[in-house]
Amino acid sequence: MRLTDLLHPHLDAVTTVVDATGGGLSLEPYLHLPPGVALRRSDDEQPITDGELALLSYGPDPDLHGTEDVCRAVLARMQPGARGLIVFGHAGDELPYHRLLDHLVAHRCQVLRAAPLDYVQLHAGAVIARTDELLPPHDFFGRPVASDGHATALRIADEYVFADLASRAQRARVLDLETAAEDAEPTREAAGQDGPADRLAAAVREKEQLAGALRAARDRVEVLQARVAMLEGSTSLRVGKALVSAARSPKRGAARLPAELYGLWRGRRRLTGAAPAPKHQAEPETPLDARFHLAHRALTVAPRDRLVVAGLLTPATAEDFAADAVVNRLLPHDGELLLRRTDPDVLVVQLRACTGDGPWWLTGTGLAPDLDRTLAELLAGARELGRTTVLWRDGPAATAPGLARLAWDAVVDSDTGVRLARLDPAVQGRERLREMFRADSTRVRLSRLARLAGAPDPLDERRVAVLAAPRNRTDVARLVGQVLGQLHRPVEVVVPDPAGLDELTAAGVTVRLGRPRAPWVADWADLTEDRPDTLLLDLMCAQEYSGADAVGHTPAADDYVFVPSLRPLLVRRSLHMSGTDPGSWAGRGHRLFAVRGKEPS
């Protein structure tokens, strides 16, 4: 919630707002006061009377938010009919309201409404009134909810009891967990047993040692097998075998020996060619090639700006993930080599890839111990590389119980999301597309992986920069309201002059001069235009669905279709910076996608 949404419903009969904040935080850019309401600084001795509203702040940083003593002094100066707005720098669950509660009661101040604030340095606010009789509290929209003092008292008392009941259950649960942990600790120490984390760490270390020894033994076996294969293919060994066989059975072997030697000679001539090589040239050799040859999949050599995933994935999941990340599917015969060559950010094992058709079928079920062993070696290799291992449990865990016994850095219990390009907008509807975009899309699932691995976040591709040029206070107020009102909020606003836009900065929106840096640009040159709060959300939904370079409206109100021309509302940054005429975009090969401006009735 913005500060204006909390304050303005309570400005009826208020003519003056008194800034009584004691810290270094200026609230003036947040207020956007309507005409007829003046703002003045507080005089420490002057009382706050009827028709005035005092601004107070209190938070963990005294230099920024002010102190508790300043708030108490302002409460003591409030006269009957005066109002106040207290903003808190504390988070909602850490709000020390008990430190002001006694002073509010002592000075006959009633809290009419309290709400969270969506700012970086201000997290909550409360509207108070100095009164000699009980006033009706206000709901979320700032409307009174009771008509007389007795009904108000009953409502407040009832709500307090129910709220205390709900919070008491949560507090009891926390206390039970803390008590159980304290009771278990002496028992474990007395028994001299290691905790589950210690046992798990020891098991992981032992497993890694065994896996290393096994890898070394396998490498040695591969070298010996290559040497044996080379010796078995040599002519000398084959001639020796023929002579030994003839010597063991002279009667039968001696008669067959010339034909065998002649066959060896003919085979050698086929290998070296029909014509004998000149004596001065060395005879070419064709050594056996025991190297793995990997099919080209995906590799990144530039500085990484995308998530790199390696794992056991179904074909559909790998295809969906590849739209927003570099993806390599590991196979049982080349998984370890591919893991080391591609150096992924995260190793993902999808449960459905182990229980459905595919090269990893039956992994974790106990019916394919060779696959279980290969998977364990892959996990050990990922830990050696310092990479995050994730079990993506998108199916019943009972279908592959062996996976739960492996050591994972994280376990994700959800589906792999839906790629918007696979949906049908006509069937799903606009509201369903918004829900999928915000909570259930593949890009959202990959963002969780990126956070686990500390890798580039795919959601960064959804960042939008707004270009605007406000000319007066009215334009500034409209720009701030439209930006903070968007359900898909822009990350930056580019303006010629940042004056008056402190509220955007406080809400976490970067205000800068010069060129935009976000991947997408929305030009809001006309600030008198009415922009719904779903504008950027619908535009980004359409872009992610289509993969277009520019999204906008057409005079014919085309919806979810590629068009040759449009009024661009959302443009890729590189295209915007190119400076080319929008009418020539389609001719240059850029994809233009139209979305209807208003919801169909």
Largest sheet: 8 strands, mixed
> Which structural class is indicated by helix and strand composition?
alpha/beta
CATH architecture of the largest domain: 3-Layer(aba) Sandwich
What is the rounded Rg?
36 Å
Shape: elongated
Termini gap: 29 Å
In short:
The protein has 601 residues and is of the alpha/beta class.
Polypeptide structure, described:
By secondary structure, this protein is an alpha/beta fold. It has three domains: 3-145, Rossmann fold, CATH 3.40.50; 307-453, Rossmann fold, CATH 3.40.50; 461-594, Spore Coat Polysaccharide Biosynthesis Protein SpsA, Chain A. 41% of the residues lie in helices and 15% in strands. The chain contains 20 helices and 19 strands. It has helices at 3-7, 28-31, 62-65, 68-77, 98-106, 149-191, 196-232, 235-248, 250-272, 315-321, 335-342, 351-355, 369-384, 425-428, 430-440, 442-453, 473-485, 502-506, 535-546, 573-578, and strands at residues 16-19, 38-41, 52-58, 83-88, 109-116, 124-130, 307-312, 325-329, 346-350, 388-392, 410-412, 464-467, 492-494, 510-512, 520-523, 550-553, 561-562, 567-572, 592-594. An eight-stranded mixed sheet has the order 14-13-12-15-18-16-19-17. A six-stranded mixed sheet has the order 2-1-3-4-6-5. A five-stranded parallel sheet has the order 8-7-9-10-11, with helices on both faces. Helix 11 (335-342) packs parallel to helix 13. The longest helix is centred in the first third of the chain and has 43 residues, at 149-191. Keywords: Coiled coil. Residues 200-234 form a coiled coil.
